[in-house]
Amino acid sequence: MRGTDGTWNFTAGVNTTPQLKDGKAKLIMEATSNGLLRKKARWERELTVVTKPPIVSVDADQHYLYLGMADLTTFNVSGFWTEAGVRVGDQTFRAWPMPGGKPGLFSLFAFAWNMPPSTVPLVYASYGTGNDVTTPIVFRFPKKEQPIYTVHALQISDQFMQKVIGELDPNGSGDPVARFVKINSEMRRANNKVLSDLRLKTADRFLWSEPFLRQSHSQAESSFADTRNYIYKGNKIDRQVHLGYDLAVTQHVGVEASNDGRVVYAAPLGIYGNCIVVDHGYGLQTIYGHLSQINVHEGDMVKRGQVMGTSGQTGMAGGDHIHFGMQLDGVQIDPKEWWDSHWINDHIAKRVDLPGFNK
Ligand SMILES: [Zn+2]
Question: pLDDT digit string (tens) for 271-322?
Fold first, then answer.
């Protein structure tokens, strides 16, 4: 319809164009001048046709959420959508088709160790940029049972500082304390980003069927999300949160794969030293740091308990131990639930098919 100021308005939709289908489309405008030259002009734009916005329906389970821990929710999305999953604050966890050909979707998600406790996890479905439909998960956040993270003072000796800067900043110069702090903060952040980005190297199926193993005969020297104050000559020079377990056995012990999976990283990684990351499917991955030797390659399939290398003290490690961590869709989580067959049964196997799992 022609407006008085020379603008034209069109309405495009299923009423005027019943053959429209959900998905990508092109809007093309063409005009031909009525002069002798019959000049043509053409303009086109990509757009998304949405005849039915998504509707999200979430399972009715009561989800008990704990800081640093994981859970699983099942849901259905009908209508048109391009991306779905669980959103917890600014973190998103992908949706996957239910295993075993069952209808519906599921997401493994984490409530990160540093997430504000008032955050409400949402199942979301997007239908184009900025267009989201969300439904909250039914959950409880038992205040009294939340993990309590501890704060430790870590005394930094000259010897340890020299070891770290010699190994991780060999060509640097200047104040050793500044170099150490830079490694501990900036390099740590960059290394964690590399780990997080491995989320994209994941299988779209469970590669495992038994509880995760904790390194045999190991002593936990520190646990998940403890804060460390770094003390040098009586002064606090840095503060960092330790996102894993430090498991010590004896020197140069065989580092065991915690579960069946595929190696997605096997190389030096800054503060983690020689590091292996194993993917277990659906965004769940285990991390092994400070090895003296790596005996697997990226792409190798490993079995639960298989020795993948030798423990050591490469990277930011003051003694021989294995830094063991776990991440879910790039968010580091507390591995302890995954060592527990009852937890896996109640939170995973009861909700989705986990072939071969026996409690
Ligand atoms: Zn560690």
Answer: 999 999 999 999 999 999 999 999 999 999 999 999 999 999 999 999 999 9
Tokens (6 digits) for 20: 């429209």
Residue type, 296: V
272 backbone dihedrals φ, ψ, rounded to 5°: -80, -5
Q: How would you list the strands of the sheet with 91-94, edge to edge?
A: 91-94, 83-88, 122-126, 132-136
pLDDT of residue 16: 85
DSSP H stretches of helix in the chain: 158-168, 176-182, 188-197, 341-344
Q: What's the CA-to-centroid distance between 271 and ligand 1, angstroms? A: 9
* Both tokens assigned to 151: 């704060």
* Best CA proximity match to 219, nearest among 247, 254, 255: 247
Instruction: Tell me the whole-structure pTM to 2 decimals.
Output: 0.91
Query: How many angstroms does the Cα of residue 323 sit away from the middle of ligand 1?
Result: 4
**At a CB cut-off of 8 Å and minimum separation 6, what does 87 contact?**
93, 121, 122, 123, 124, 134
User: Cα(309) to centroid of ligand 1, in Å?
Assistant: 17
294, 273, 276, 293: which is closest to 285 by C-alpha? 276
Distances (CA, A) of 272 to 156, 213, 322: 18, 20, 10
How far apart (Å, rounded) are the C-alpha atoms in residues 278 and 276? 7
pLDDT, average across residues 140-157 = 95
Cα 87 from Cα 127, distance rounded (Å): 15
Distance 244 CA to ligand 1 centre (A): 6
86 C-alpha vs ligand 1 centroid, how far in Å?
29
- 175 burial (CB, 10 Å; 0-12 / 13-18 / 19+) is exposed
Q: Which residue has the tokens 């285990």?
A: 286
